Amino acid sequence: MGTDREILERLLAGNRRHVASLPDGYFDDVQTGQHPTVVAVCCSDSRVAHEGMWGIDRPGAVFTPSNIGNQVWDDDGGQRIIDGSVLYPIHHTGTDAVAVVGHTGCGAVTAAYRVATGADPPGPRGVDKWVDMLVPVVEAALESDLIDREAADDAVINRLVEYNVGYQVRSLRDADAVPDRVDTYGFVYDFQGVYGDRPGRTYLVIVDGETAPDALAELVPDGYESAVESLLYGNGADD
């Protein structure tokens, strides 16, 4: 191991600033347990601010599992099951909502697209496991009439991102382990100006299986209609 500890120093200094910024009593309400209102399944991409995107400024509000490609499942001896990090807050902390959050330019979706169209897995094995679980999703998308395979790669990939978000949400809706009381939302976090001109905005693309933008615009609170957009099904309300 090298002797350069610059990264370690940054981490320690950042935590020192974090501690200094906390008001008195910051953790008082969560000392003996947690009751997050939502499970937000995000991609582990470093550009996706898991709590920052929601403006969260207190602990215990959002349960934040993340993985390569914002997937809600895992492989258990060859059987695909809903991941425990999604199920735990639902079954043990009273959480009644799950938000699946993809993002524009997703590297995991890109890798799965490459594999689905003939490329080798990116490696190493720990990465390939998650990419392999995405490949059937990408293949289903490419076989549908929702993806123009002749479009530029970035356009295809961003549509696949949205398709994957919808697929993950529908998988939650279909899973016996997820109670009917749980609401399921799907968003795409856009920092590349694909859906609109407001970097860092989350765009709602599916609610409990509903993907029609006009229907989604009716479901959101007044004033948030412009947060409904879709690359697959047409635009919602204009900004």
UniProtKB/TrEMBL annotation:
Catalytic activity: hydrogencarbonate + H(+) = CO2 + H2O
Enzyme Commission identifier(s): 4.2.1.1
GO MF assignments: carbonate dehydratase activity; zinc ion binding
Alphabetic keyword roster: Lyase, Metal-binding, Zinc
Matches recorded under PANTHER family: CARBONIC ANHYDRASE
UniProt remark on cofactor binding: Binds 1 zinc ion per subunit.
The keyword Ion transport is assigned to this record: no
Cofactor list: Zn(2+)
Family classification: Belongs to the beta-class carbonic anhydrase family.
Main EC class the enzyme belongs to: lyase
Origin superkingdom: Archaea
Record's protein name: carbonic anhydrase
